[in-house]
Amino acid sequence: MLPDKDGPSQGGGGTADPGGSEDPAVSLFREYLRLRTVHPEPDYGAALRFLDRMALELKLPAKKVEVCPGRVVLIMTWLGSKPSLKSIVLNSHVDVVPVYQEHWKYDAFAAVKDDEGNIYGRGAQDMKCVTIQYIEAVRRLRARGTTLPRTVHFLFVPDEEVGGHAGMEMFVKHPEFTKLNIGFALDEGLANPGESYTVFYGERNPWWITVKCPGDPGHGSRFVENTAAEKLRRVINAFLDFRESERKRLNTGECFTLGDVTTVNMTKVNGGVAYNVVPAHMDVSFDMRIPPTVDLQDFEERIKRWCREAGEDVTYQFAQKHMDQEVTSTADSNPWWSAFSTACRTMNMNLKTEIFPAATDSRFFRAVGLPAIGFSPMNNTPILLHDHNEFLNERVFLRGIDVYECLVPALASVAPGPGEA
Ligand SMILES: CSCC[C@H](NC=O)C(=O)O
Ligand SMILES: [Zn+2]
Ligand SMILES: [Zn+2]
C-alpha cells in the first residue's frame, strides 16, 4: 500500500484517511501537524484558530493573553468542582523548529502516514502529539460526564523553541498566570526507544557563551605576536578538553544519562577580514548544558580561568545564562508525584526518571517554585525531536491518549494539601 499522502491543504476531521478507518484523533493530530507553526515565522494565527475551534468542541472557555506583540498564550479552562483548590496545568508549546526539507522522506508539513502507521511531520514528537493527546483525553472524559475536583488549565504557548523569552518566561510574570492558582504542571518530555517511559523532574541549565579573543593585527606573511588565533586555539582547547572529559564520564562507572553530565558544543566561530590580514578579533561560541547538581559559581570560575590562561584581554559574554536549579521531588511525599507515578503503575508503565538534557518551558514553572514534570507518552519510539524525518506511530499516539485519560483525573483528584481550602 502506498503512503497516504494528503496535501498540506487537506483539512482534518476524518478526511485524512481514504479508507475511512482512521481514528478521528489521529486525523486531528495530522491536521494540526499541517499548520506551519515553524520558525522563524510561525503561523500562530492558524494555530489560534485551530485551538479556538477545539475550545468550542470541548465546550471550554478560552482566554488569550498577548504576552508580547504577536505572541499569544491561549488558556483553556476546565473548571473543577472545587475551584478554590490549586489547579493542574497541561502545558504545550505551539511552535516547531525548522526543517531541512531535502533530507525528509516526505513533506515535513504534509503529515504523511506510511503503511506502518508512522506519521511524519515536524512536531510529531515535539510536541504537537502531546497537545492533541491532552485535547482528546479531555474530550473523552467530558463525553463521559466526568467531573474533577481540581480545575485543569491547558496552556498553549508560543516561542518555546527559541527560548521562551516572548512566551512562558513572560507569562509566568503576568497577573493572568498568578490567577491560575497552579499546583502542578505537566509539560513535554522525550521519546523512549524501549518499553519504558522517560519522565523528567529537572533540567540542565542552558548557558550560551561567546568568548572574544582580541589580538595584534599585521601582514599575513609574518610571525605576528599575540594573535587572536593563538588565543582562540587555547580557548577552544580548554572547552573541548573539558567536553571530552565529560563525554568519557557519560556511561562510565555509575549509570549516567545525558542529563547528569555537562555537554559543551562549539557552535559558531567568527573573525577575519581577508586571507592576508591577521585579524584583530576572533570569537567562538559554545552551547553548554549544566546539570542541576553542578555548582554554577565554581563552573563560571573555571570558564574565567580558561579565558585568563588563553591570553591577554580574552573576555566572554552570555547569550543565555539560566541560573535556577530547582528540581521537582520524585519522593512519595510529593502528592503530585505520588498521584502521577501511581496512575502510571496502574497502567503497567515502567518509568525512568531523568534530568532533561535540553531546556523546556518547565524551567520557568520550576523557577517560580511550582512542581513540574516533563512527560511525552512515547515508548518504543526513536528520539527524533529536531531531527530529519520526525515521526510518531499512530498506535503509540493513541496509547498516549489513554495515558492522559488516566493521569488527568488522578492529578485533578489529589487531596487538598495543607493551606488549601
Ligand atoms: C536556551 S533556550 C533554548 C531552548 C531550546 N528548547 C528546545 O529545544 C533548547 O535549545 O534547549
Ligand atoms: Zn518541545
Ligand atoms: Zn524542541
TrEMBL record:
Cofactor: Zn(2+)
Localization per Swiss-Prot or TrEMBL: Cytoplasm
PROSITE patterns the UniProt entry points to: ARGE_DAPE_CPG2_2
Keyword Thylakoid included in the entry's annotation: no
InterPro entries to which the protein is assigned, alphabetical: Aminoacylase-1_M20A, ArgE/DapE_CS, Bact_exopeptidase_dim_dom, N-acyl_aa_amidohydrolase, Peptidase_M20, Peptidase_M20_dimer
Pfam families recorded: M20_dimer, Peptidase_M20
Chain ranges of the Peptidase M20 dimerisation domain: 201-312
Residues the record marks as active site: D95, E160
Gene Ontology cellular component terms for the protein in this record: cytoplasm
Broad EC category: hydrolase
PANTHER family on file: AMINOACYLASE-1
Name used for this protein in its record: N-acyl-aliphatic-L-amino acid amidohydrolase
